[in-house]
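SECTION: protein entry
WANTED: fold as tokens:
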Amino acid sequence: MVTITDRAKARIQQIMQDENYDASYFVRVAVESGGCSGLSYKLNFDNEEKKGDQFCEDKGVKICLDIKSYLYLAGTELDYSDGLNGKGFEFHNPNATRTCACGESFSV
């Protein structure tokens, strides 16, 4: 499934606290058409399960993927960077054959 780094876990927990999300919320990770490489990543918080959702948990963080996204994201690591090159979540996807320079879209 999808794993997260300690930095991503800390940022997710901070966002959940800042937004007053309770324990019913989880991180929804998805892939959608778009971006300069054809597919782009989408990450948000949700508390409603949809038909076909696949759940996993890493480092105490509950992660949800729809079945289509699961096929593209299996084995992906979610990281968080706040360095000089930019601030935000980063996806390290072993299934991607090409990524754009900004790292927000990919193709398989």
The chain has two helices and nine strands.
